[in-house]
Amino acid sequence: MKKLKLVMVGNGMAGVRTLEELLRLAPGLYDITVFGAEPHPNYNRILLSPVLAGEQTLDEIILNPLSWYDAHGITLHLGCPVTHIDRVRREVVAADGTTAPYDRLLIATGSTPFVPPVPGKELAGVLAYRDIADTQAMIDAATRYRQAVVIGGGLLGLEAANGLMQRGMQVTVVHLSDTLLERQLDREAGALLRRSLAERGLQFMLGAQTQALLAHDAGPSAGRVRAVQLMDSAGRRVELPADLVVVAAGVRPNTALADAAGLLCQRGIVVTDTLQSVTDPRIYAVGECAAHRGIAYGLVAPLFEQGKVCATHLAQMGIGRYLGSSVSTKLKVTGIDLFSAGDFSGGPGTEEITLSDPHTGVYKKLVIRGDRLVGACLYGDTADGSWYFQLLREGRTIAGIRDQLMFGEAAAGLAQP
C-alpha cells in the first residue's frame, strides 16, 4: 500500500511531539518530510536560558538528534524555511526551491518575537531573544561588552537579564508595568521578586516606556547601539547606556505563511477541536501558531495536549478532541520558585487568604469564591502548587478544609475525617 505524504512546517517542540505520538499510533502510515527554519534538530527552547547563563551547553538541550529522524525515515530539511503553500497543488515550496507534495500538512511555525516599533530597533547590538542564534549572539556580546539593557520584565526578559549578568555584564531591566511578571504574579509577589533580583545585582526601571534606541555616530562603533532613551515613571526622559539591548517584549503567533495561503488567522491559525484548520481540513496546526476557541497557548503543557489529539486524527483514528486547557504557571526564575493559576488577582465577590513571611522569602495568596478555590499565587514555596491547581481545575468544594487550605495538602488531609 502506497504511503500517504505528511509534510510538517516547523521543527519545534509542539510539532515534533505530534510526530512522536503519530509514529507511536501509526508508524507506517506516512512518508514524513519536515522543514525547519533553524539549522538545528528539535531542541528544548525552555532551556535556552540555562545555556545563556553557562549552566548547560547547546548539545545538552537537543531533544531529537539527527539520528532520531533517520531512524524513523523522516526527510529533514534544516535551515530551510518554507515560503509558500500551494493548496491547489497540495505542495509546499521552500526558500531554496525545494518542493514537497502533501496529503496532509501540519503547520507548527510557533511564534515570533514582538519588537516595539521604536526608532533604532534595527541597530547593531539590538537582539530579540527567541532561538539558539539569539542566545549565541548574546553569549558573544558578553565577551566584548559591559552594559546591557533588557526591554521586558516577563519571564524571558528576566532569564535573559540573569544570564547576561552571570556572564559579567551590568544589566538593567526596563519594564512598562510597575510589577515584574504581572501576568503571573500579584503586586506583592512581584515586589518580593524585584527585591531578591536586585540583591543579586540586577537593576530595574519599572513603569518606564522605551522611546528610542540611540546609536554611536562615528568611530569603530558607528551604527551600533549606545543607549536606550526612555520615559520613566515620573515622566522624565532618561538615557541608559547600552552596548547590547535585548528585546523580550512578548511574542506573536507566526501566521504569515498560513495567512498568505488563505487560511483563516485570528490570533493564530484558527483550528477546530481536531486541530484542523477551519479553512482547509487537510491542514492541521499545533502550538503557538494555532488559535483554538480564540486562544493561542504559549505554555508547553497545552501544546503537548494539542499534539496528542492531532496525532489521533493524522493516524486516521478520529477519536481525539481538544477542548482547551486549564493552565497554571510554575516557574523557577533565577532559582526562585513561583507558581500561579486561575484568577489570582481576586476582586468583587472573592475572598483572599494570604501568608507573608519576608524573612524566609515566602508569600502565598489564595483566592476563594463561595466554597471554591479560584486562584493561587505562590512565591518561594510552591510545593502545593499542583494540589491547588487540581482543586481549582476540578472545582471541588473546600468547605471542609478551609481553615487548613493555606497549609497545604498534608494539613488538609489530616483535617478530613
Q: How many structural domains does the protein architecture include?
A: 3
Mean pLDDT: 94
Distance between the first and last residues' Cα: 61 Å
CATH superfamily of the largest domain: FAD/NAD(P)-binding domain
Q: What is the third-level CATH name, the topology of the largest domain?
A: FAD/NAD(P)-binding domain
How would you write the strand order of the largest sheet? 3-2-1-7-19
Characterize the biggest β-sheet: 5 strands, parallel
Helicity level: 10-25%
How much of the sequence lies in strands comes to: 25-35%
Shape: globular
* Alpha-beta content class: alpha/beta
CATH architecture name of the largest domain: 3-Layer(bba) Sandwich
Output the radius of gyration: 23 Å
Question: Number of helix segments?
Answer: 10
CATH class category name of the largest domain: Alpha Beta
What does this structure look like?
InterPro entries: FAD-bd_OxRdtase, FAD/NAD-bd_sf, FAD/NAD-binding_dom, FAD/NAD-linked_Rdtase_dimer_sf, Rubredoxin_C. GO terms for molecular function: oxidoreductase activity. Residues 5-293 form the FAD/NAD(P)-binding domain. This protein is an alpha/beta fold and 417 residues long. Helix content is 24%, strand content 29%. It is built from 10 helices and 25 strands. Strand 11, helix 6 and strand 12 form a beta-alpha-beta unit. Helix 1 (13-25) packs parallel to helix 8. The relative contact order is 0.12.
